[in-house]
Amino acid sequence: MKGPALKFAVILALAVPVLTLLQHFIPPLGGLGETRVVLLPSLVVLVGLAFDLIPALVFFAYAGFLWDAFSLPLAATAVEEVAPSAGGAPFGMPIGWSMLAFGALGLLAHGFRPLFVRGRWEVHCLLGGVCTAVSIAAEYLSVTVSRPVGVEHRIVFELSPEAFARILAGGAVALLVSPLLYLLFRLLASSVGLPLQRAQRRAL
């Protein structure tokens, strides 16, 4: 990777902490059950669609680590709101588990790369919505599946109707936001002279 591709990779590396922080400062959508706007999974999908496999895998690992570092403490607070009976401080999976989750979602997106290269940008919107819902559900699972109870630990998983609604609403919001993220992604790529789709020349 060199030239425009390297410049764009640097931009994406800087975009990950920015998006991760930004999504925590966007107020929850009160009309949708206090749903959070989650942006990073849609970016993971875009990278899976646009990049070759090895650079994409590096990005998935990097994004997954930062997702855990920024999001797990706040996710634990959110779980207390929708599943108080799970109680206690989060025990769950360690920081770094999202590397695997983002890797799996990114590889799924990578399988649709031929469509994206041919100009089917809507593939990103659909996958962005699905993968965001899956990411929110996995994050919820990570902080509820194992929590301390006294001096022992037990497996607890409670998916309340409110939590399920938030997961679905988060995916729906991502579906609506994905076109804007795609346009920004394409604009940044064009600014460094990097074509993403066959209509522009070829993917990375």
Question: Can you give a write-up of this model?
Answer:
The chain is mainly alpha-helical and 204 residues long. It has one domain (4-25, 36-191): Arp2/3 complex 21 kDa subunit ARPC3. The chain is built from seven helices and two strands, in the order ααααααββα. Strands 1-2 form a two-stranded antiparallel ribbon. α1 (4-25) runs parallel beside α3 (53-82), α2 (40-50) packs antiparallel against α3 (53-82) and α2 crosses α6. The protein is globular and about 50 Å long. The protein starts with a helix and ends in a 13-residue tail after the last helix.
| SSE ordering | HHHHHHEEH
- Rounded mean pLDDT is 77
Which sheet architecture does the biggest sheet show?
2 strands, antiparallel
**What class do helices, strands and sheet pairing give?**
mainly alpha
Using only C-alpha atoms, the radius of gyration works out to: 18 Å
Strand percent estimate: under 5%
Proportion in helices = 55-70%
Determine the number of helices (DSSP H or I, runs of at least 4 residues).
7
Q: How is the largest sheet built, in terms of strand order? A: 1-2
- Text of the CATH class: Mainly Alpha
How far apart are the termini? 9 Å
Give the total of beta strands. 2
How many distinct domains? 1
CATH architecture: Orthogonal Bundle
Q: Which descriptor suits the 3D outline?
A: globular
Detail the poorly predicted runs.
76-92, 200-204
CATH topology: Arp2/3 complex 21 kDa subunit ARPC3
Topology:
Layout: H1 4-25, H2 40-50, H3 53-82, H4 97-110, H5 113-117, H6 122-142, E1 146-149, E2 152-155, H7 161-191
Helix pairs in contact: 1-3, 2-3, 2-4, 2-6, 3-4, 4-6, 6-7
